[in-house]
Structure formats: C-alpha cells, structure tokens
Amino acid sequence: MSRSWMRLDNAALIFPAVSSSRWANTFRLSADLKDPVDPAVLQQAVEDLMPRFPSYYQRLGTGFFWYFLEDVKEAPRVRPEYAWPLTHMSAREQGRCCFRVLYHGNRVAVEFFHVLTDGTGGLIYLKNLLAQYIRLRYDEEVPCGGDILSLAEEPRELELSDAFQRCTGRYPLSRQEATAYRLRGRPDPRGGTHVITGIVKTEDLKAAADARGATVTALLSALMTDTITEIQAAHVSRKKWKPVKITVPVNLRKIFHTETLRNFSLVLNVGVDPRLKDYLLEDLCREYREQMALESAPEKMAGRIAANVLPQRAMGIRIAPLFIKNIVMRLIYRDIGERKGCINISNMGRVDLPAEMERFVRRMDFMIGVQHTYPNNCSVVSCGGVTCINMVRNIQETELERRFFGRLVRMGIPVLIESGDAEQER
Predict the structure, then answer these.
(1) Both 137 and 270 in a single domain?
(2) How far apart are CA 284 and CA 274, in angstroms?
(3) Last-in-domain residue among 114, 131, 148
(4) CA distance 197 to 333
C-alpha cells in the first residue's frame, strides 16, 4: 500500500486551527522498564516500525483549503528528556514529525500531536515499540496477537481510514449544553506543565467502584465532581454556582467495531447541577454510571459524529480558503469546545501485555496536556496491578490535587504521591 499524504480525520481538523505558540493539543504515553534504556536500540525499534505504521510517521502540511498529513522521509530521532513532560510542540516541529520519542533512565515516552491519533491509537504504537525494543535488546520472542501487530504485514486499509466518515449518522445531535463551572488559578510564570501523580493499587480502586455499583471511570468522575463542588463553594456564592461536568473521552472502536489507528473517540460531558441538591458520592456514582451508559449508545454517538462530519461536507465549507476555516473553527471551539466541562478525565483502563513483555515493564503512565482554557487535566492508566492517576496543570495552585487525592485516602485507598523528585505516602 503506497500513499504519500492523508487528509486529516474529522477529529483532527480542529487541532491545527486552534493551536497557538503557547498551546498544542498533545498527549503522552510512557513505560518504565526494568533496565536503563539503550538509545541505539530504541532508535532501531522506531525505524523498524515505520513501514508497518505509516499513519504515525507524518508531518503536518498546509494547503490552500485544508491542512494535511504527509509522510516523513526518515523516522524521528529519539531524544533524551530535555524539559518537563508535554513540552510545547511548535509548528516547526509539527512540520518535521507530529510525534517525538524520548527516554530518561529506565523510561521510554512517546508524545503525540493529536492530529495523528487518540490515546488508544497511541497506546497501540507504544506497545509495538516496546515489543520491538524487547526483541532487539533481549533477543526475546514477543508473539504477535491483539495489539501486537506483525511488522512483516502490510498496513491494512482499515487502520489508515477516517472511521468518522464511515460511522456517521444521518441526523446530527444537538450540541447545546449548559455552561459549566470553570477552574481558575494563577498562571505559572515559567509557562511549564506540572504533574502530580497518585499511584494506587488497581484492586483497591476496583473494589471501591464495585462497592458503589460503578465503573472506575464513574467513581473517579464522582470524586472529581465532589472535589470541584467543594472548590466552587469555597470561591463562589451558592446563588452563582454553575453545573459541575466532567469531560470523558469515549473510545468509539468498541462501539462501532473498527480497527483504525487514527483518531476515533468523542467526549461526553457528564455532570450534575449542585444547586439542585447536595449529592452524596453514591448518588454521583449512580448518575454517572447511568449517564455514560445512556449517552454512549451507538445511535447517540452516530448523531454526535454527524454533528461534526456533516458541516465538513457542506459545499460552502469545502470551498472556503483555509484561513476562513481557521477563523470559523476557532469561534466554534471557543463557544462549544471547552465551555461545557470543568476538567477532562481520560481513563485508558487496564493495559494488558503479553507475558513475554510483562517482566520487562514495571509501570505505564498516560498524560494529556492541559486544554486551551482548562488549567487542569486528569489521565489514568492501569498496568501490572498499579493505577497511575496523573494530574496535569499549568497554574500554581495545587488545591484540586490536594482535595482529590485526600478524598481517595479518606475512602481507605492508600495513595503514593509523586511530584517531581519528591515522593510521599499519604
């Protein structure tokens, strides 16, 4: 299969339009290995994956009507970590390659510009990168199966497809929602990203969710709602309160049974209006379990896809020059994109690895950078019996993290807190 460029998928269209010199929508997946990383072997693994996974090895190009993705001629060079996680990916870097591979000590990290793929697609790439690295470094035979794909195979057309175009509904679902409470703080003067990680035993978190008849995502969303409601009460009089809503990405591959490696997720804004009643944690768990089940039904997701895809197909949009499209998309993003939620909670769930890989991987992490106007974000992944909850912020205040992790501790779930070089158990 040969192609030198690709159209951006429907979800990716918005990201170049709203990126700025201070913000690009990026995310990071990383793995801590049992031994220090060998950069030469890692570089060889990155190069070995290039023919099998062409949709990742792309640069962002600019046309008269649309942005596009174009094949890079060489695989990106692996680099030692040189700053904080999710360092801004400039337009110049995006013009060379839209992902970077980093290493530090025992850690391998891949950071993606969201035009390439979503968290699920990024995780598939990292799994295959680790599999090839382990084969080369340890002469270990890592079998193919599940997310571990054969490097001898040609990439499949379905993997490279824009699944939004195939799975759109006939009728768009309305985007109208109440505006949510906004978290605020003093911007970090250095412009960096701060990460505080809470590490818990997966079995403890799962038991707490099961006891309340909830999924882990519903439980974490409920705890976050409790936390944000408490912060709102501390800073705003009750008559000025707004709804508290959590933005939860949904992996559409499971709903529509497709194997695309490109973006194929949408977000739900699930939440409550705390002016109506004082919600108990059990109330919130029930609300979120029911809302997530109802709103992620295939017919509703198809309607949400249609709300994004059908305008893209309109002749007036198609023939408009790119600078006009950018203006329109920025206005849409400003009015709709981030005003309807308080914070993003993206849970990758449990990462399963082949037994041949498990003994080499100690831990995995997942981080989504702060959004354009969200000063905080929360990303979750479980691997090897450990769940890492990464709280990312670009403000000075740690109020949200302190209150949130404190709630987990009061529930009887021990939390190991990591922040920079400091570790402490609460």
Answers:
(1) no
(2) 11
(3) 148
(4) 29
pLDDT tens, residue by residue, 330-383: 777 766 667 789 999 999 999 999 999 999 999 999 999 888 778 999 999 999
CATH number for the domain spanning 103: value is: 3.30.559.10
Question: Is 390 in contact with 378 (CB distance < 8 Å)?
Answer: yes
Is residue 278 a part of any domain in this protein? yes
Verify that 288 and 360 share a domain, yes or no: yes
Query: Would you call 214 exposed, middle or buried from its count of C-beta atoms within 10 A (0-12, 13-18, 19+)?
Result: buried
Range of the domain at 24: 5-148
Check whether residue 402 and residue 290 sit in a common domain: yes
Amino acid at 8: L
- Give the domain CATH number at 301: 3.30.559.30
| 270-324 pLDDT, tens digit each | 999 999 999 999 999 999 999 999 999 999 999 999 998 988 877 667 778 887 8
238-251 pLDDT, tens digit each: 999 999 999 999 99
Rg of the chain, C-alpha, whole Å: 21
* Type of residue found at 11: A
Beta-carbon count within 10 A of 323 CB:
9
- Interhelix angle 216-235/202-211, rounded to 10 degrees, is 80
Q: Is residue 119 part of a domain?
A: yes
Nearest residue to 130 (alpha-carbon basis) of 153, 146, 97, 107? 107
Nearest to 108 by CA among 185, 200, 25, 46: 46
**Cβ atoms of residues 120 and 141 within 8 Å:** no
> 308 CB contacts (<8 Å, ≥6 apart)?
10, 11, 164
The three-state secondary structure class of 195 is strand
**Helix segments in 19-162, DSSP class H:** 39-49, 91-94, 119-138
Task: Yes or no: say if 132 and 45 are a contact pair by the CB < 8 Å rule.
Answer: yes
Rounded CA separation 142/148 (Å): 9
Q: Are residues 121 and 226 in the same domain?
A: no
Number of compact structural domains in the chain: 2
Round to whole Å and give the CA distance between 375 and 358: 35
Residue type, 348: M
